[in-house]
Each structure stands twice: as C-alpha cells, then as structure tokens.
Amino acid sequence: MPQRDAPRESTGRPEPARPRRPIRFAAIRLRPRRHRPPGRGLRAALPERVELAHAVKANPALAIVAHLGGLGLGADLSSDGELATALRAGIPPGGSS
Question: Of the candidates 72, 79, 27, 38, which has an alpha carbon nearest to the alpha carbon of residue 53?
Fold first, then answer.
C-alpha cells in the first residue's frame, strides 16, 4: 500500500483545489492602419444627405475626437462639455449636431 503524505498544518485559509499555476499572457501588438480618406468606402456608399458623426458621449477623448474630425467626421453632441471638446478638437460648429 502506497504511503500517503503527512497532512499539512492548516493556515486558516482555504486551500485551492488544485495547485496554482502562473497564468501566461501573450503580448499582442497592433500596428496602426493607414486610414483611407473619408471620400472612399462607407462615405462613398451613402447618400450625400447622410452625415457621418462621432458620438462624443461614447468617447470624449480629445485625441480621438480630433483624429476623427480630421478624417471628415462631424460630432454628435448632447452637452455643453461635449461641444467644448468638439471645438477644441477643431471640428467646426457646422459639423456638429
């Protein structure tokens, strides 16, 4: 009959059901894509009366709003703070709704 290990002294904490193993995470590197001008792709497929706009409430980061404004998107606003962000990002007042 195999000999069993002696029981360990209790530490007062619950013991894990299985030994802990370190969790390894793979690093993912994303390379930025070159953006196509807004005149191609989705913009070209939509009627001219349709305006593309970024919902500033969803992501009010100034760098994001400025980048999307530079691509030709307007800003969808719902507060004075969002208006201030859009103006600081360089989106003209006529490009906001």
Answer: 72
Tokens of 74: 């307007």
Quick one: pLDDT at residue 83? Answer: 92
From CA 7, how far away is CA 10, in angstroms rounded?
Answer: 9
With 0.70 as the threshold, say if the pTM is over it: no
- Residue 85 near residue 66 (C-beta atoms within 8 A): no
Is the CB of residue 41 less than 8 Å from the CB of residue 21? no
**6, two tokens:** 């002696």
Question: Would you say 54 and 73 are in contact if contact means Cβ atoms under 8 Å apart?
Answer: yes
Residue type at position 27: A
pLDDT tens-digit series, residues 33-84: 565 555 557 777 888 888 888 999 999 999 999 999 888 888 999 999 999 9
Q: How crowded is residue 28: how many other Cβ atoms within 10 Å of its Cβ?
A: 5
Domain ranges, ordered by start, for the chain: 50-95
